Every structure is written in structure tokens, then in C-alpha cells.
Amino acid sequence: MPSFASTLAAWNRKLHYYLGLYFLFFLWLFSLTGLMLNHQQWFTDLYDRHEVSYDPEIETPAGDTRAEQTLDLMRQLKFRGEVDWPASQPVGHIDFNVARPNWSARVRVDLNARQAYVKEFKNGTMHTFQIFHTFSGTRFNQPASRRDWAMTTAWVLAMDALAAGLIVMVIGSYYMWWRLKQRRTLGVITLTLGYAICGAFILGAL
Amino acid sequence: MIYRWLRDFHLYFGLFISPFILLFATSVFYLNHGTLVTGAAAQSETYRDLNIPDGFDRLKGREAVERAKAILPQVGVAGEIGFLRYIPKTGHLIFPVSKAGSEATIDVDLAARTATLIRRSMHLWESVSYLHKMPGPHNVALRGNWMGMQVWRFVADTTIYLLLFVSLSGVYLWWAIKAERRIGMALLAGGAATFAGLIYAVVR
Q1: Which residues contact A100 (CB under 8 A, 6 or more apart)?
Q2: What pLDDT is recorded for position A70?
Q3: What are the domain boundaries of chain A?
Q4: Inter-chain touch B198–A197, beta carbons under 8 Å
Q5: Do B19 and A199 touch, CB atoms closer than 8 A?
Q6: Which residues of B touch A42 (CB under 8 A)?
Q7: Are B18 and A180 in contact (CB < 8 Å)?
Q8: Is A173 at the interface with chain B, CB within 8 A?
Q9: A 68-87: CB under 8 A from B
Q10: Which residues of B touch A162 (CB under 8 A)?
Q11: Interchain contact, B100 vs A202, CB within 8 Å
Q12: Does A145 have pLDDT greater than 80?
């Protein structure tokens, strides 16, 4: 009968590559978009986008709150995506922005005139790809921002799952490596070097 | 032979980048779900008789940043200058300076040769998230004006390149285990389907 340690080692090893295989495409997306974000100079025309403006008439939006009225306006305009509102709202207006990674719209609605002023922007493929890295619907340094689109929440859950999967894989990899006695010395050196450099940055020494 | 080499490189490169993977992975939770609490405003400090370079009224971009860097050691600050804001009306130059662990805002009165400094400490999660986001896509022309940021850019890039190598070599090492191919293929296909489905649902 296999010992507990060998069973744990076998399942830990399986878990390591099962998680790695499942998250492979997510990992590549966040790795490549991470490189893009840090090397904007590699790209020309990255932020070029196709713009369309129009002024549709709208029905008086249903709802008591700004959020409910915005949702109704989005239904009328057939828009879907993550919403945010500008800090200041003119009297008698509902102004909002809607965004998905490949598209966004700036909507200004004059409620009294029942008129919307819409600007739609279609992002290029590379820009769309890059936005997936940061598409979370919130900003940690803007406490008022919050997610309001189900697909943003789903994407954020995917980010969280990848992050959790990577943490499990890293911890599991330490166990796998430690069991390889002949590779401990060089492993300790590389791991110590990694932690020393990383720690120096976190502590602000570098 | 290739298998043994790849297995060893997979192991040692993986161990080396593991702290950085933990940094990027743990900060995801703070960036997605955290809220910045800055705490009480720090006391301001005033520095006088500074040696101020000239030309801020006409210089822009990297050139102006290079001159602003001369002010930093005089006020005891080191770090990456985020941007520069020159206010012609008052003759003030205002700029933030940051590195993991701390940030400062410096308000220089160019004519009076004085600077008012407000320092703020970052807590651990904020520091880790700061590193996650740096150097980033903003103010590209200015970014990397501090040696520490240049080194961090190199380290972050190296982490990504090694991670890509580790993931590709991991696929090779898995494929070599014939008994695991079937379940591995199922997981790979499941991951690909989840990935493609989510992308489609978000952009359609």
C-alpha cells in the first residue's frame, strides 16, 4: 500500500500539470498582454479606433435611480457592457459610458428633450487583446467604482481563478522540488536569489 | 536528453520566478477586490535654498524630468517621477515620485527655491499592486526615469519570458507521460473552451 507521502506527491504532481493545462490559454493571454502593457513603444496605432456619432431619440427612461434609468436607456440603445458615470452630471441629463474590451460608447442624454448624443468607438484587435488584462470594472484607488455587468464579473472570476491556480501550482512545485534531494542545493540557491530580488523590490530597496 | 534538460530548466527557472509569480498572482485579488485606504494625511515638510535647475518653463517630457531629478536628492526622495505639472501663473512645479513602499508629492516654488513635500507610506498590498502595474502603459515617454524602475521592467519582462518557457516546457513534460495524455487533453480542451467562451461572451 502506498504511503501517505507518496500518494500526496503523486496527486500534487497531477494537480500541478492539470491546473497548468487548464489555465494555459489564460496564462498566455495575461503574459503577452503584460508584455504589451510594459512595451507600448513596440506598437504603432495601437489606440486607433473607429468612431461613429449619432443622435437618437429616446423614451423617458423607466426607474427611480440613475442606475435603473441608465439600464433602461441601454436597453433602448441595445448596448451591453460595463457602465461608469462621469463625476459631474448636468441638470436634466443622464451621462454615462459603456465599455467592452472591443468597443465603448459615450452617451449623453438630455431627458427633457428625450434626445441622446452617442459616440461609439470600436477598438482594434491588439488594443482589444490588451484591454482583457485590465478589464475588471473597478479601480482599487477609486472606491466608488463597482462592477455592474455580469460578464465583467465572470471575467474577474477567471482572473481570480488563474491567480489562485498559480499560487497552488507554485506551492505544490516547492513540495515536488524538495522531494528531489539531489536538486535541493541548486534549488535553494535559485529560490533564495528569486526571493531576495523580489523582496528588495517590495521593500522599496530597489 | 532533451527531456532531462527541459525538466531541469523547468524546475530551476520555475523556482527562480516563483516569488514574482506569487507577487503578480496575490496582487490580482487586491486589484480586483481591494479598496485603497490611504489613512491620515501626512505632515508636509518644507525645504529651502534648493539648487533648482532652470528651463521648466520651456522644457517638456523626458528633458524636463531629467532636470527635476536633480531636486530629488536635495529633499531626500528617491523613486520614479510620475509626471510633471508646471504652473506658469504661480511658477510652481508639482510632481509625484513613487516606488514600492512609499510615494511623495513635491511642490517646488521655482522662484523662491523652496519645496513642500508630502510623503505617504504604502502598505504591503499596495506596494505589491504598485509593482504589478509598473511600468505600465501610461506616460510611456517618461517611464523608466529612475534606475529602480528600469531594473523592475527588466525583471518583470524576464519573469514573463521565463513563464512562457516554463509553460511550454511543462506541456512537453506532460506529453511525455503517456498515461496522463487523455485526461490532460480533456483539461486542455476544457480550458480552451472556457477561455474562448468567455472571450466571446465579453466581446460579442
Answers
A1: A80, A81, A82, A151, B202, B203
A2: 95
A3: 4-40+156-202, 49-123
A4: no
A5: yes
A6: none
A7: no
A8: yes
A9: none
A10: 25, 28
A11: yes
A12: no
Q: Which residue of A has its CA nearest to B184?
A: A18
Helix, strand or coil for residue A116? strand
Q: Return the C-alpha cell found at A160.
A: 481570480
Q: Which of B189, B159, B133 is nearest to A18 (CA)?
A: B189
On whether the CB atoms of residues A148 and A67 are closer than 8 A, the answer is yes
pLDDT of residue A173: 97
Nearest beta carbon to residue B170 from set A17, A151, A159: A17
Torsion angle of alpha carbons A12, A14, A15, A18, nearest 10°?
170
**A39 three-state secondary structure:** coil
Question: Helix, strand or coil for residue B38?
Answer: coil
Closest residue in A to B30 (Cα–Cα): A140
pLDDT at position A49 is 94
Instruction: Specify the pLDDT at position B136.
Output: 93
**Cell numbers standing for residue A164:** 489562485
Of chain A, the end-to-end C-alpha distance in Å amounts to 51
**In the predicted model, what is the mean pLDDT of chain B?**
94
Note the pTM of the prediction, 2 decimals. 0.92
Q: Which residue do the cell numbers 501517505 mark?
A: A4
CA of A163 vs chain B CAs: smallest distance (Å): 4
Residue A144 has pLDDT above 70, yes or no: no
User: Is A9 exposed, middle or buried, given 0-12, 13-18 or 19+ CB atoms closer than 10 A?
Assistant: middle
**CA A154, A159, A164, A166 torsion: positive or negative?**
positive
Question: Which residue in chain A has the smallest CA separation from B100?
Answer: A204
Q: Quick one: cell of B202?
A: 465579453
pLDDT over 70 (residue B180): yes
Which grid cell sits at B19? 516569488
Q: Is A30 helix (H, G, I), strand (E, B) or coil?
A: helix
Residue B186 to chain A, least CA–CA distance (Å) = 9
Determine whether A110 is exposed, middle or buried from the number of CB atoms within 10 Å of its CB (0-12, 13-18, 19+).
middle
Task: Quote the cell numbers at residue B23.
Answer: 507577487
Q: What is the mean pLDDT of residues B87-98?
A: 96
User: Greatest CA span in chain B, whole angstroms?
Assistant: 76
Q: Is A150 on the interface with B (CB under 8 A)?
A: no
The radius of gyration of chain A from alpha carbons, rounded to an integer in Å, stands at 24
